[in-house]
Predict the 3D structure of the following.
Amino acid sequence: MSFRHLLHVNTDRDGVDRRAFLKTVFVGSLAAGGAALGWRDTLALHADDLRRREMSCILLFMRGGPSQFETLDPKPGHANGGPTQAIDTKVRGIRLAEGWTKLADEMESVALIRSMRNREGEHQRAEYQMHTGYIPAGGVRFPTLGSIVSSEIAPKDFDLPHFVTVGGRGGIGSGFLGQAYAPFVVNDPSQLPSNATLPGGLNSDRLDRRLSLRNDLERDFAENGGAHQAGDQKQLVANAAAMVRSPRLRAFDLSSETNATRDRYGRTAFGQGCLLARRLVEVGVTFVEVELPGWDTHQNNFDSCKRLSGQADAGFGSLVKDLRERGRLDRTLILWMGEFGRTPRINGNTGRDHYPRAFSMALAGGGVKGGQVIGSTNDGGADIANRPVGVADLFCSVFRAMGINGRKENMSPQGRPIKLVDGGEAVRELFA
């Protein structure tokens, strides 16, 4: 029985299932090392493992490169700022671009970095780097952030995917970590995943018998050189079977939310994706990415940013508010970012072009100290004035918040050891 009938699975260009459900291995076996440790050390490791099991991360990715001038670093009164005005927030001295009212109300929980920099100014390369920490390199397929975090801290005894991406194409993918850590893609957050229930007349016992028969049929293939492929497929089917029988599957059903709540997040794909992300981390999903495309504003920048900012503010601000009020924000790191920023100069089409030299991002939750701005740009926004933050620094900061050793090395299929992040330092102000 093929579980393509249960859950639609995309395949990448090599024909491998991209929507594999995530089998994870909890990092560090206490069983292997506990006997050699003192009881105090063993208890400390247990406590750390229990803490890490509860952590999650939500990435709100603004595909196309959002203008910092129309979002987190407005420059009213300067020619480069254009017509965009600034509004006050709940934190005195911190201002956002007009239209970001919900985020302004949650600024005590949010940290802004206004001095991000990226050497890549082309969409695909910059997006790749902002998701993996690496630039594209030869035959090595680096894993995306969601796959890395899932492989490091997600509990193995879980019956939903550990990494879900909403409204996107699956992102960069799991790279050399393999299909066990690939994202589960939700195209429409307002609908349940396709074929996520057992067909009529098929109960759990009959499903188990069919799975057993499938395993028997694949055994010959596995014993004749196909063990790796058969193993991956077996795990995919097992995880799909667990998902369709999971009571947690209800987390994907937004119809159980009140109309007022759904309206507050915004009746857009992004807004409903943020609401879905909240529901998923509350039931134990480790990583959720929600995408809002359209920020490549070479033309008509100001009208486009106003429309997009309304969607982003409703989703982002409501997500922070709900997680804070529901006691989940400290255990959920939220990242808001794109692949780069936009030029200070306004072009002849009333647009802004690519600008990786100085741009902004935001973080909330996950132990991050909110109510602060880290770094700044000069009056015209053309250069970083102080505290530059690189991509490696960002990854180090994310890993610190999630309790992950960023200097750990994974072995690529080419036999090359690759660190989770190469260089950089965690931004200390985020954890002050």
Notes: The first strand starts at residue 56 and ends at 61. Residues 60 and 336 are 5 Å apart (CA to CA).
